[in-house]
Design brief:
5-stranded mixed β-barrel, globular, about 25% strand, alpha+beta, about 575 residues, 16 helices, 8-stranded mixed sheet, about 25% helix
């Protein structure tokens, strides 16, 4: 055996015994005749003492070695309380080099996160040696294992669905795979197991789940990795919206409780309608750690002679800016203009009197109304946001978050969950002016067939819901449309003929004609969950081998060119 113990395993009871360790050389130090090295493996670090310099021949930092020797107490003045093994050390009597390392590293292992991402990802195997990044991948494994056990305990059955499937319009670009056997035809990598999990419900499985890989050809963001991602995909037969939300509350609360010491909002998580979220928080992914809310002042300003707000929607945000210097308000204006706003008005209540650029346009009655309607207290400031209807909520939401961050009123020691419900079923494409599905085309409209036949499509809401944590969308889900007649009508409104419906979604559409139970589900994103639990800014720091922001694998040099022979076999010609 190369080792009798792992590096973080030695304790006081091992003093005086022989032990063998193996790992990477973290540091080498010379203390005048006696040399020390820190040996690191996945579990931690142990200090090694060497009394013979010849033992270090051929050994440098990040070499892989096996060490044997006697475990001893450290001298009192060399105890390291930061290490779990800091009370002891291994006095080596032999060292075996198992793997040599180049003398010059592309970056310092423990400082890899400060290195350019291109370099980190090119040498990802070195980046993953950084204990902080390494810890994230270990956390990810434990979280997935916990999720799997929790779902099984709730009676869900794990079933794998295909990776090679048919292309379907689900909101993002497909990754296409050419068929060798069927010339001119293509598979697609699944954007989600959506249709398969619904057909599992038709097949008589009550509760399905899967740690599902999903593939979408979309651009990267801090909380979105290009290419592929993983989600806890689950579906329930004979279920309504609250059944799914209860499962999500149970599993997510238990998971975050198991892996974090932060405060976690208890079940039942707050339910916020889409309309209220857009008006109160300025977005459909509200960060509830921020106590600030937005009020609608459109009707109020329709009675005020102020040209800048005339015939436009107006939003207000009350914030306590007591003691803030003039530069704070100047910076708020700079931020507003940087995001596209034309300005940012405000008034401050000081000794019962409003002060600020807009004060002169308001009479006493209007000022009193603002105080009571917005709940303004002494020393607080009311900020005004006004723009076109397409932008005003977005701008108000961004100003709300800027104020929350810069006033330092965000609760950074909490995970605040909420469900956003009642999403609109349809929306009008601003470029083409045609009506399209807002999100998932397989959602059940509230009101069923009657709503589709009698209501303005833009006023129909769906049994569709998102789960949001600290402003990050963890999941979307829906009660599914399991009726062929309702599906046919919904797709017709979105511009699909029955022939096209059968062509694009033929398997699901046909399956529903053979007795489909009501069913519903959702799919929390595992990458985002781990990112939050690890307190990382970017999702790539919780994925072992991620693509970069330009959807490239710098380690394996993908995407890459292939041979003409491979192209011919796949019946593909490059344009």
């Amino acid at each position: 055996m190369l080792r009798t113990h792992i590096c973080n395993e030695l304790r006081a009871e091992h003093i005086g015994t022989k032990a063998s360790l193996a790992g990477w050389v973290d540091t080498i130090r010379d203390h005048g005749g006696v040399k020390f090295l820190d040996l690191r493996d996945q579990s931690g670090v142990t200090q090694i003492v060497l009394h013979d310099d010849s033992m270090l021949e051929g050994v440098n930092r990040e070499s892989v070695i096996a060490v044997s020797g006697v475990v001893k107490n450290r001298d009192e003045d060399t105890i390291n309380p930061k290490l779990e093994t800091g009370m002891l050390e291994l006095h080596a009597d032999s060292i075996t080099v198992l793997g040599t390392c180049k003398s010059v590293l592309p970056f310092e292992i423990r400082e890899s996160t400060a290195t350019r991402e291109e370099v980190r990802l090119k040498y990802r195997y070195l980046d993953l040696r950084n204990p902080e990044i390494h810890k994230n991948i270990v956390l990810r494994s434990k979280v997935i294992n916990f999720l799997r056990r929790r779902m099984e305990a709730l009676g869900f059955l794990e079933i794998q669905t295909p990776i090679l499937t048919a292309s379907s319009p689900e909101g993002a670009r497909d990754y296409l795979v050419p068929s060798r056997k069927h010339k001119g035809k293509f598979y697609a990598l699944p954007q989600a197991p959506q249709q398969f999990k619904q057909m599992l419900m038709v097949s008589g499985f009550d509760k399905y789940f899967q740690i599902a890989p999903c593939f979408r050809d979309e651009d990267a963001r801090g909380d979105r990795s290009p290419g592929e991602f993983y989600q806890l995909d689950f579906e329930m037969a004979f279920a309504e919206q609250e059944d799914v939300l209860t499962v999500a509350e149970t599993v997510l609360y238990d998971t975050f409780k198991a892996f974090s010491e932060k405060h976690i909002s208890p079940a039942p998580f707050r339910r916020v309608t889409y309309a209220d979220a857009m008006l109160t928080y300025g977005c459909d992914k509200p960060d509830l750690r921020n106590p600030l809310t937005i009020c609608d002042l459109t009707e109020f300003f329709s009675q005020v002679e102020f040209a800048a707000f005339k015939n436009k929607p107006v939003r207000g945000i009350v914030a306590d800016c007591t003691g803030r210097p003039r530069s704070f308000f100047d910076n708020s204006l700079k931020y507003a203009t940087s995001i596209g706003m034309k300005g940012l008005g405000y008034i401050t209540l000081t000794e019962g009197i409003f002060k600020g650029p807009i004060e002169k346009f308001l009479n006493d009655g209007q000022k009193n109304y603002l105080i009571s309607h917005c709940g303004i207290k002494e020393g607080q400031t009311l900020f005004f946001i006004s723009d076109a209807i397409s932008n005003v909520n977005k701008y108000a939401g961004l100003i709300r978050m800027w104020l929350g961050e810069n006033l330092d009123i965000m609760d950074k020691d909490a995970f605040e969950f909420c469900f956003v419900v009642d999403f609109p079923m349809f929306e009008r494409n601003p470029e083409t002016n045609v009506i399209e599905f807002t999100h998932n085309p397989f959602s059940m409209p509230q009101g069923g067939l009657n709503a589709l036949e009698t209501m303005n499509p833009l006023q129909i809401t769906a049994y569709q819901y998102d789960i949001v944590c600290n402003g990050v969308e963890l999941s979307s889900g829906a009660v599914r449309n399991h009726s062929p007649e309702i599906m046919k009508k919904a797709f017709k409104i979105a511009g699909y003929s029955e022939e096209e419906l059968e062509k694009r979604f033929g398997a699901l559409y046909t399956a529903f004609q053979y007795g489909a139970p009501p069913h519903a589900g959702m799919a929390p994103g595992i990458d985002r969950m781990v990112m939050l639990l690890a307190d990382e800014e970017t999702i790539r720091d919780v994925i072992a081998f991620p693509l970069n922001g330009n959807a490239q694998d710098l380690l394996m040099n993908a995407p890459c060119e292939v041979t003409e022979h491979q192209l011919r076999e796949a019946n593909v010609k490059i344009r």
